[in-house]
Specification:
Length: 290
């Protein structure tokens, strides 16, 4: 188990706004230029709990619970396809009164964030991507696993299985190694998976997978060279789900990108918080276009 820990400080108070007609919760701390932290699957703003305090000494930090996750609403009337989710980031920025911001994003958040910076380059001052499938996809075992989720979620008889109580146990077992390596404690993992204990949460979860696609996104890869903002690719090298090659391609193709390697698994902000926080602070020091 890792001993790389920093002082978390007091947990920030959650606030609420409305995006696409439904409730979005977010943590906010600090003052100054804004910094948005986007989490991944199956997390919430708590994925950044070690970073929010130190980063808020320099920025106004906003860490949302993406719609469907954490304490935000789970509205199955909302589409979860890629284009809808990326465009939803812009509407979230509007709801939060953000014109231009630094953006750090992990996992699913990085997948969406990459599309967002390509569509709205004028709204991102700096970009950090952490262990995300980004423009590519997962390693073969995880591509098969998540692909099975998406296929099953689109077929009614199998979709009902994704909305049954055993799905909580399946995910708890599947994420147990992150308890062993110190990424999560039991309380944090329970909070991430609590929605799978409720019928409404499981229905939304099946809805999410019905809109998701595991295929490679060549249109994202083709536009990497257009990203002009200072970019940091911060990567846990022991990730079984996403190849290090994805990180290397991001760093090679994005013109003003640096690659930072961390001896960590997929949930690196939680497993190696001090290293990740230090890397993000250095990233914030990089000059950005006015």
């Amino acid at each position: 188990m890792t001993t790389d820990r920093i002082d978390r400080g007091a947990a920030p108070e959650l606030k609420e706004t409305t995006v696409d007609g439904t409730r979005l919760c977010y943590a906010e701390a600090g003052t100054g230029d804004p910094l948005v932290l986007l989490h991944g699957w199956p997390e919430s703003h708590r994925a950044w709990r070690h970073q929010i305090g130190p980063l808020s000494a320099r920025r106004r930090v906003l860490a949302p619970d993406w719609l469907g996750w954490g304490d935000s609403a789970r509205d199955t009337a909302l589409s979860c396809d890629y284009d809808s989710e990326v465009d939803r980031i812009a509407r979230m920025f509007d709801a939060l009164g953000l014109e231009r911001t630094d953006l750090a994003c992990h996992d699913y958040g990085g997948f969406l964030g990459l599309g967002f910076v390509q569509r709205h380059p004028d709204r991102v001052r700096r970009l950090a991507i952490l262990n995300s499938r980004a423009h590519r996809t997962f390693t073969p075992p995880y591509r098969l696993l998540f692909g099975a989720f998406t296929v099953g979620a689109r077929h009614h008889p199998i979709r009902r299985l994704l909305a049954t109580p055993p799905v909580h146990l399946v995910h708890r077992i599947g994420l147990a190694r992150y308890l062993r390596n110190g990424s999560f404690d039991r309380e944090t993992l329970a909070r991430y998976l609590d929605m799978l204990r409720t019928p409404a949460g499981r229905r939304w979860y099946a809805h999410f997978w019905a809109g998701y696609e595991v295929r490679i996104r060549p249109e994202l890869g083709a536009r990497l060279r257009e990203i002009a903002c200072p970019t940091s690719v911060i990567w846990g090298t022991r990730d079984r789900a996403i190849s290090l090659r994805t990180a290397e391609e991001l760093a090679e193709r994005i013109p003003d990108a640096e690659l930072v390697l961390v001896d960590a698994d997929h949930f690196l902000m939680e497993e190696r918080p001090a290293e990740v926080t230090a890397s993000l602070l250095r990233w914030l020091d990089r000059p950005a276009p006015v």
